[in-house]
């Protein structure tokens, strides 16, 4: 072998060795990248499955809430309990945002023959998470709006109910304190005027009673089954106080 041939072979050997080293390094980097991708994918799916389970539990709570009370203080407690869901959602917010970002990055980076499969699996999980997340916010808002409406109705009913009870009692006391019919014409006239005033009072009370009964009927329709008898009993008390029975 001539020196020239030996030098040529040496060059080829060096080139082959360099190429092999590059390939080996590329394979090593590829293996590291694949390991990292697998680790990230595993962590992503584990974390998103965890948050999906948490969100599903919240949705279940919202789909089966306790019946709305007819009592103002209890409705306030229910409003507070409903707000606790928003607090739970705030705690999950950082993880939710992180998973959204990582999922979108994984979809953007995905490649190769299985791109559609892996990307679709991640996208499906993201879509499910976002859908449940938004659904929870909608359910919380709807629940709060309904609770506030019923609370406003309950406040009006119980306030008017109490006021009417007091007015009826005062009117009954006034009637009992009336003197027996007099003989003197001037006294009789005063008694007639007093009687007319009482009749007007009673007519006004009847109008107020009708209003309160209507409010009570609305409250009965809006509150849950356990509280309906409470409102019905209160309406019956008003009717009895007025001398009526239903």
From TrEMBL:
Pfam family, one: Spectrin
This protein's UniProt keywords: Coiled coil
Coiled-coil regions listed in the entry: 188-215
Protein name: Uncharacterized protein CATX-15
Organism encoding this protein: Homo sapiens
